[in-house]
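Please review the protein record below. Let me know how this chain folds according to its tokens.
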Amino acid sequence: MRTGAPGSFGAHLKTLREAAGYTQEELAIIAGLSVHAVSALERGERRRPHVETVRALSAALDLSGPARDALMASARAPDHATAVDELSRVSLPVPLTALLGRDTDVRTLRDLLADPAARLITLVGPGGVGKTRLALELARAIADEDTCRVLFVGLAAVRNPAFVAPAIAEALGVFDDAGFDLPRRARLACEGRPTLLVLDNFEHLLDMAPLVSELLIAVPTLRVLATSRAPLRLRGEREYAVGPLALDVDVRSPADLARAPAVRLFVERARDVRPDFRLTASNGPTVSAICRRLDALPLALELAAPWIKVLTAEDLLHRLMHDALPSTAGPRDLPERQQTINATVAWSYQLLAPNEQRLFRRLGMLPGRFPIEAAAAVLGGREGSTSGSDEALRAAAGLIDKSLLLRSKTPVAGRPLYDMLETVRAYAALELTSASERDDALEGLVRYSIAEATLAAEGLAGRAQVEWLDRVREDLESYRGALAWLIDRDRPAEACDIAWSLFFFWVIRGHAAEGLRWYEQILNWPSLPAATESRALLGTAAMRYTLGELGHARTALARALTLAHKTGDLVMVARAENLLGDIEHSVGNADAAREHFARGIEGFRALALPWGLGNSLTGMASVVLATGDAAHAERLLDEATSVLRHTAPWFLSWALYLRAFLAVRRGKPDEAIGFVRESLTYIRQLHDTFAFVYALVPLAAAAVLKGDDEWAARILGARDAVTERTGAAVADRSLDELKEQAHRDALARLGPDRWAVAYAAGRNTSIDALLKDIDRII
């Protein structure tokens, strides 16, 4: 068998696998990959594995430290990875188990995806049949081949159709603009690159199907793989029915029966809870009958198999035949296979202990992944409970044992997340409503969201800002659910507490349009408390400023500042003054900006609020620098940097950018490059496209000062590609002038042809490549 070239990822993987004593099949099962995928990687047919694939393999091989880093390095970033890709925050989920019994489906769908005319393929089937798992297998295989960019959009937790477009925009790395044209932005984001967009769990959002059609029309290189219980009913759609696992085989021995995918899945899940379970001549027919009784549906088998821990196969079959009845809470007119799934979930639910049943119902209120604290909150409901987390943990352990709850991967270390398959969650929600507990569970969700948002408000302005940005994103659907409930129940003050606490998340992670929607809904109430109205107005102003609507922002701020003075809220006064400084500076009113920043500095200094003080000092420095007083600007930036070293990296990245700008103005390119290098490390952690397009201008100007015009062209190419593909633009005249000067100088010395080649290369460069260039230069 041919293997990858020496030193390649494939050769490295094969060496590690053999050293661990695994066969390819064993490694595939542990890593949650197909055997074909592992084999193709080792043979060198897939030379650029997806980062999530490498992580799964590292975990399966129990690698850590240098060994893990070496495997990751041998995979290295794809040649076509760009800064936009690195700034994106969406990755393919990592399946927890290997895909079984879908080889024919995979082959057929790979052939279908290879057909240029098949641009929209919808995997259709009942909940629990394995559509998501099959789509993920296809997506990971295509991503590993490095011929197509693959983007995943999980829609199961999205309850409001208004958030479908932002979810797709986030996957594309596109800025969420309140009036943005997603198809046009998608065309720019794809920029002629073959792209596969996976839209998972579309069935409850079918009214948004026309958006999919618009995207396909606008982006010729885009293909869509959707999963849904019902087709999207769009022109050109290819429906692929995902059926149960195969069960019928020529059975002459237990080994023959084990080849049936449905039986194999049942046996493997039974071994998860009872390692000594084996398929024998005596229990084989019973296991086969269990699989047949469950229509060979993967989810039904996953739910039934764990009961082998306490029941014999014969007892399990007997109970399934006599106890599993269609759910009394669910519709009776569902397709037969969906009734089988609901009946199996219902049967599993009925066998739970009372405390497990109660938690199971309550978890139906949580729309996406959740920490144990959220589970405890919905369990405790309106009143809460002092022993909520312990009680929730005990019940959650039981649900995990029975495959009704899953441990989920999380980017936030030390904060385990849990999840329910959407079909299971839907049944839990039905039982919750049937038990008349929905409102109480929602009150628990509100309690959790307010408490968590209060912590987030502090964390988003602190040194653990990156972790808190990820943490808020993980909880976003819970926040949305709580906000919608509070607004629907005429409780705007509590809704404002949540929306205001997430202020920096809306701004930094490109959700300004969503933040604006929540603030404006709160402002629709006629008689708000002054403190609530002030916060909502300042939030509205900040979001509109971020979206470039300066006139509307100034109007909202004037009212917010008046209310803040009236209530004596000095923090709000200082924040409003600082934002007014930003607005006036943006429109060229230097004197007004200077006055507002001065009041902001005075206010934040009196409040001893470091992030605010550093932010206002940076703003004042930008005004002073624009008026030509470089020495004063440098003193302000020295103080700002000193203060901000102990706060959130987002604030510091802006101060560093301005220091780089100042260094260029003073003819010190090496100093400027050093500041940009430090800011880029923060920008990549924060996934901040705005800070990126700002920081690259002084970097390009510094390259010109050093006479490296080709590098300057590459830098400007990288910056312009991010601007065009994401919508993140500069609103600073001085910076525009510096960019145009760097462009003119480099172009004049290089000539049009050399400029075009370098600029084109830069459009496809990565942040890693930029950092390597910087290290080479300095």
About this structure: Residues 1-7, 325-334 have pLDDT under 50 and may be disordered. The two ends are 46 Å apart (CA to CA).
